[in-house]
Design brief:
CATH architecture of the largest domain: Alpha-Beta Horseshoe
Radius of gyration: 22 Å
Shape: globular
Largest sheet: 9 strands, mixed
CATH superfamily of the largest domain: tm_1862 like domain
CATH topology of the largest domain: pyruvate-formate lyase- activating enzyme
Number of strands: 17
Strand order of the largest sheet: 9-10-8-7-6-5-4-1-11
CATH class of the largest domain: Alpha Beta
Helix content: 40-55%
Number of helices: 15
Amino acid sequence: MTKRTGLYIHIPFCVKKCNYCAFLSFNAETSPRREYADALVSEIALRGEELGHPVIDTVYVGGGTPSVLDISQMRDIMHAVGKSFSVKEGAEITIEANPATLGRKDGVTLAKLQAYKYMGFNRLSMGVQSMDNDRLHCLGRIHTAENVVRDMELIRRKGFDNVNLDLMFSIPGETTRDALDDLRKVLELAPEHISCYSLQIEEGTPFGDMAVAGELTEVPDEEDRETYHEICRVLREAGYEHYEISNFARKGAEDPDGPSPYRSRHNSLYWDMSDYIGVGLGASGFTGGRRYKNTSDIEEYINALTVPPIHEGARVKVPLEEDHLNDGFDNISEAVFTGLRRREGIRYADAVDAYMRRAGGSTAAGPKEEFWRIFSEAKEEAEDYARQGLLIIDDEGLRLTEQGIDISNQIMSLFV
């Protein structure tokens, strides 16, 4: 398998935190956006130098809501990327945005989209979540369904031909019929990619507090799973490839039976054990078998990267929360866990290759035999899942069935 390298850039600012959100983000109006952008530019330069200015295949700017940054701030960040890394020709370069954050007037939105084009962005990922205004209000979103339709029209007008729309289901009070109505309205916008996620109630969020207080009724698991499988059916019938548990890509016109050209290339890095460099507050990276996570303290992050200024020759280090060098078992365990998220699953050869990269040495056994030697204690239970029609095990590898996705974490845990 050809390994690639991606760059993830975290922008931890939002106009307003949603009721379900447990991600690392802050209010954009009261946060030090300019100082953060300067610190981010410093980290990009530092990471590029440490890694020898590597070639990168993908860039993903996520958040938070990256589109709340001023154009000048985003321009500085992307300029730093171009100076510190060799961005491969034809690289997938994505920015996340939320409806109504690109601008309230058509001209403002078009100017921002044009600036993104100039900076090199060729893929947009927009957090829609629902096409029903009452459900959007319940979620704490700042946009309306009408904003989504308007922004998609402007996005197309500026020539973006690779757009992902995020959609959420199992919202409190929502039925399967409601969720499918949302989906059909999204399909009318003809995005190249759709990500569908079941709402998860997290501790420390407004929804989490409401659930503890008995003020929020979660959608039952049975209904959640029924909705998921109906979503999969509708998207298949609409010509989308279900290539990962939550992700669907429109099939290519030239080769409708082959892999979709609209699969998220950046997210695919996470699922095939490729390297990715994480920069920004709380960002995670995986390079050369080492996993790290930056500090989540914004004051510590900014101070470390801007005080004293790096141009005065001071040695700057990014403060980390985690720093771990994988061993062979870490690698193969992660390869299986993430690989099973993909509908094609994990090949024995790729899993064993990930193991040997860290364990060293060689083996006379074939990939299948070596795989089950390493996971001998999991083999009997895995075969039981296969007999139940939840897991497919063959001579090449293993993969979840659509029904197996319903208990994917339970099956994946066999290999951890």
